[in-house]
Amino acid sequence: MAASFDPVSTSASVSLEGRVFAGVSNADTGQVSSATQFRYHEDGGVVWAEYDGGEIVRGYLVGTRDGDRLSFRYVHLATDGATASGVCDSVIQVLSDGRVRFKESWAWESRPETGTSVVEEIR
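== N-acetylglutamate synthase ==
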């Protein structure tokens, strides 16, 4: 059974503070995987997270939230020693089990590729 969501009544009001996410799917040009964990924080429309795992040694993102939408920039250090940065826009969805999912569209600023990804809350 596929998970459902209600983006109108719950995704705009759910807090991201303290939630932990992992990659579910990503474009081939992305570096986030199921081994990558994001630890989110939120305060008054400002969002930020620390992330690591898989190909990523350490990463940070910071941006803003407007209802069910996130807009942020990210930067990280990969296991090969290269740094990378980019921009991402996400739509927040709440799954039927109460977990949160982000559907993301991103673009590297440190190289030419773009892509889409999905990350979901883990418990």
